[in-house]
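FORM 7B: Structural annotation worksheet

SECTION A. Query
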Amino acid sequence: MEKQGFVRFNYDLSFATMQERKVIEIGCGEWGFRNLPMREHFEIARDFDFKWLEFGIGGDQTGRLSEFPESNEIAEFKALNEEFGIATPFCCIENDFTLADENDHLEVLEKSKKQIQAAADCGAKQVRLFAGFTPVEKVNSEIWDRMIKAFWDADQLCEGLELTIAIETHGGITFDEDKSAHHFNSVSTDPESLTRLMEQLPPRVGFNYDPGNIKAVRPEDKNCCLELINDRINYCHLKDWTRKGEGWVAVAIGDDDLDYGPLFENMKYDGVCLIEYEPLHDSRDGIRRSLDYLQRIEEKSQVLKFQR
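SECTION B. Predicted structure
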């Protein structure tokens, strides 16, 4: 039987009170702040009245904590939480568990474990990890089994630290000279692989649902794999991509054609959704456009309410 796409709620809810609406908390993602000192992340979040802010560890980015933050760096970060009154339970870590070389894989796993411990020391409750960026057709059974084992190992550590893992739906990317991105399927965007992951991952491990990333790999899928992973979403990034030549460039939600309304209405996840505006040159304007788009959705939907 052919799967049917999601449809908007179209019945009259003019009688509905705000208490009956589906309320979605909105926070601020960190990737668009990767070139900014950490304090500026908090200042921007404060200026937009965000109560939730994502942070990152490693990846050699100015806007992230170092690869293996020492206690003084962690204390300085936690002091920003207190000063600004902004919670940072979401931590991004860079990893690839689909590397072909086993020694390289084990090195990445050990580094990831150390950074998970650092995330817990910073007060995080969730860690965003990647499955990996190897093209899905090159992930053989040996690579697959190592990847699954890595998540079981990482989850065992996280359980003891009272953390949960969210695997981002993220394909592999190559870039043209004009800086446009070409996305290809990884195991976290390919539907068949997502189904296998759901079956084989530890039950505590969920997905960071990023519809924009799935659109950039498979633009014909207007539901962006929501029907496949809806029961396991435990984290969410909000962005879009628009065409540039043969590739894509990241834009704000509402800047292109990804319709978030039906996704929000049908998504079972009830936690914080994080605006991830990636361009570096106009961070504040991109966040503002994203918030304006959410306001337009709220006005049209009658069943959704967004709050910061």
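SECTION C. Observations
The chain has one domain: 18-307. The radius of gyration is 19 Å.

SECTION D. Sign-off
Analyst initials: ____
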